[in-house]
Amino acid sequence: MLRYDRTRYIALGLSSLLNAALLIYLLELPTDSWPEDYAKRLYWLLAGGLALFGATAMIKRARDIGSSAWGILLGFLFAPPFMLLVGLVLSFIPSNPDVDTLMPSPPAASPKIWLAGAALVLLPWLTVLSIPNLLGLCC
């Protein structure tokens, strides 16, 4: 699917973007250098995967409203915190049905998509809680 409608974007893209930001800011992951601690490296890999999934959802949503994907890509390169605000704005802009005449408009999110979005919200935090136990860092 090359385009995401508003509901599919909120369920999949916005939840992964917000989770990536929460992982970085709430766990106070260092941004100046690669951490020595294995747990923080795993947290960075988890946040990077979530951010990549969220960025692809933002590109698909931008395609659905008729915008270029280059703005999204350049925004992630030069101003990642600002892109959270752009991600929130993308959830309120209505779709443009005349954008892509070769493909039909994307369907609304089904209950399976909403369950996948709920899993994207919960599973990273279950991973964060279990990583110290797996690495033997907890008592």
TrEMBL record:
TM annotation in the entry: 9-27, 42-59, 71-93, 113-135
Entry keyword DNA-binding: no
Keyword Membrane appears in the UniProt entry: yes
Superkingdom of this protein's organism: Bacteria
Pfam families: DUF805
Keywords: Membrane, Transmembrane, Transmembrane helix
Protein known as: DUF805 domain-containing protein
Organism: Methylomonas rapida
